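Q: I have 326 residues here and want to know how they pack in 3D. Can you give me a structure?
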Amino acid sequence: MREWWVHVGLICIPLVAVYLHIPPPQLSPSLQKWHNAGEAFHFRGRDIFYRDSYGALGSSDVVVLLHGFPTSSYDWNKIWEPLTQRFHRVVALDFLGFGFSDKPRPHRYSIFEQASVVEALAAHLGLSNQRVNLLSHDYGDTVALELLYRSDQNRSGHLIINSLCLSNGGLFPETHYPRLLQTLLKDSSFLAPVLTRLTNYKIFQKGIGDVFGPYTQPTDAEFWDMWTGLRYNDGNLVLDSILQFINQRSKHRERWVGTLTSTGVPLHMIYGPLDPVNPHPEFIRLYQQLVQRSTFTILDEHISHYPQLEDPTGFLNAYFNFIHSF
């Protein structure tokens, strides 16, 4: 019996070693095209990927897109072209630790740093003195609130925010229900290093699929592109560090919810009501109660946590109606 376990161990150890060193997948043609259309700028010694497209003639309007967790700027690919037909410039970035940007480890990822990344990108693109419209999703919503706070407080280097449109972000810790794996990764210093290395495509697909509606699931190719973006630069190994943003939301609730409720900037919320992370009607009722100056759009009942991917037409209609309302 003892020899049998020795043989099993000798077989399993190299298999596990091989598994843990599986290289990231190759970029699909569509993801490669997205990458080729972008550039990088340096932020505190790190490369940050971004896209900057010039669009509508006769307009000076700029929109900056802030993506969610755990994906990337590619989340905006289905609405990119329509946005370029409405705005003079459409800008998106991969936050530090996401997509095609650098993913340093160990590193103390924070919402504050990501907001500084956005401000540095705006300065790099010559947008520091221009009014910009922010369009955000999920994790990007919280980054947007920090940018809004800095703007309202007239902090040095802040953006001049013309409008803010949020979508399906966990703005309120009391109505936010992270997935089990997210909770384990953010709170378990012992398990997190193991779980990040053992996370594979099937686990990722199941987790992402659970926050899409049953009729709006990504295609196999779309799932694979999301996974590829995560695995690029070993992004799976920094998930636990990035997930500290959930704890940061609780710690800094007064700062971020406070600025949301007091700002004079035009606000809108686009909401997929089937979202298990920010469930209906609990989330939207609290949003209406606390953010009374904001307008909102509730999309069809089968739309979940990724409305810009699940219902790009409905998302765009809601956003353009908001932009044209002020």
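Q: Anything worth noting?
A: Confidence is low (pLDDT under 50) at residues 6-19. The beta strands are 39-43, 46-54, 62-66, 89-93, 131-136, 160-167, 267-271, 295-298.
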